[in-house]
Structures are given as C-alpha cells and as structure tokens.
C-alpha cells in the first residue's frame, strides 16, 4: 500500500469521524451548529459559564418577555437587554430552541432516547425550551393549552430522567 493510499484512507477516516461527531452533537439542537449569515452571534452560543451567568439567566427568565407574531422572544427590560449575554440569550431563544409543537415533540422524543447524560449546553437549551413552552401554555386556551401542557410534561420527564442518570455536577460552571 502506498503512502498516498494510506494518507487518503486516514483523511477519509478523519473526515467521517469528524462529520459523525458533529452530527452527534447537532442531533438535539441542529440550529446551534448551522452558521447564520444575518447575525453576528457566535456559532453554538452558550449562556452559562459561571455562577453569575446562571443568576443572569434566572433574571432573563424572570424579566418580562414578549413573543412576537413571528415567535421571536424579546426582553422588555432595557437594562437587561443592554448586557452582552442578552445577545446570546436572544440567539439561543430565537435561533436554536424549537418553537413549534412538532419540533418540541421531536425534541422530547430525542431526549427520552438519548443515551448518557446531556451536555451542559443541551441541558441549558432544554430548560430554555421548557420555559418557552410553559410561557406558551400559560397564554393558550382550550385544546391548545392541553397540547402545550403535554409538551411541557414530556420535556420535564426527559430532564428528570437525565438528572437521575447523572449523579454528579454537570460540568463546571
């Protein structure tokens, strides 16, 4: 076997392995790994990297949120909106987490069949999806309220299952 053939075989294996790993990462939230030309937000943004970030995320969720007709989430608090982390929050909420019931159901099914413990960013995005679904359930009426509530229950059960699988902390904060 010539060196060129060995090199091509290694290159092929590396490409296949890299693509496989990227796909594995992108299964739950594929939009996190797709670059968007129209925004300057980083690829695969994450909110929580310190305890202060966790507290800031809590403030974002407690702040008054508004869902526009295009399903875009907006923070109404000008002070919070001016923070650098608010851009990542908007990018995750408006570009990564699912907002339509079929996509949320698909996420719930993927979470329930996910082997191992969720990575920190997937856990964070699932929690944000739950917050969005809870907000939509609170605004819905009749049958739609039941549909949103069922989606919320599905996500909650998947996260509870993930928490039971993990016995230690989920990475460093």
Describe this entry's structure for a reader.
This protein has 173 residues and is mostly helical. Among the domains are: 43-96, no CATH class; 100-166, no CATH class. Helices cover 62% and strands 3% of the residues. It has 7 helices and 2 strands; from the N terminus they run ααββααααα. The chain has helices spanning 3-26, 51-62, 78-81, 84-95, 101-112, 120-139, 142-165; strands at 65-67, 73-75. Strands 1-2 form a two-stranded antiparallel sheet. β1 (65-67) and β2 (73-75) form a beta hairpin. α5 packs parallel to α7 and α6 (120-139) runs antiparallel to α7 (142-165). It is globular, with a radius of gyration of 19 Å. Residues 1-20 form the signal peptide. It holds the Pfam family FAM180. InterPro entries: FAM180 (IPR029170). This is Protein FAM180A.
Summary, kept brief:
The protein has 173 residues and is mainly alpha-helical. The protein is 62% helix and 3% strand.
Write the layout of secondary structure elements.
Elements (H helix, E strand, L loop, with lengths): L2 H24 L24 H12 L2 E3 L5 E3 L2 H4 L2 H12 L5 H12 L7 H20 L2 H24 L8
Antiparallel strand pairs: 1-2
Helix pairs in contact: 5-7, 6-7
């Amino acid at each position: 076997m010539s060196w060129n053939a060995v090199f091509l075989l290694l290159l092929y294996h590396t490409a296949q392995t890299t693509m496989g790993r990227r796909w594995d990462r992108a299964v739950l939230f594929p939009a996190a790994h797709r670059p968007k030309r129209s925004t300057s937000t980083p690829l695969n943004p994450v909110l929580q990297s310190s305890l202060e970030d966790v507290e800031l995320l809590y403030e974002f969720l407690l702040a008054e949120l508004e869902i526009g007709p295009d399903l875009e989430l907006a923070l109404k608090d000008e002070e919070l909106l001016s923070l650098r982390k608010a851009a990542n929050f908007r990018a995750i909420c408006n570009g990564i987490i699912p907002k339509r019931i079929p996509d949320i159901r698909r996420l719930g099914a993927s979470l329930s069949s996910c082997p191992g413990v969720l990575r920190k960013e997937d856990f964070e995005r699932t929690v944000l999806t739950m917050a969005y679904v809870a907000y939509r359930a609170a605004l819905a009426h009749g049958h739609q309220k039941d549909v949103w509530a069922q989606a919320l229950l599905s996500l909650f059960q998947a996260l509870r299952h993930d928490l039971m699988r993990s016995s230690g902390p989920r990475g460093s904060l």
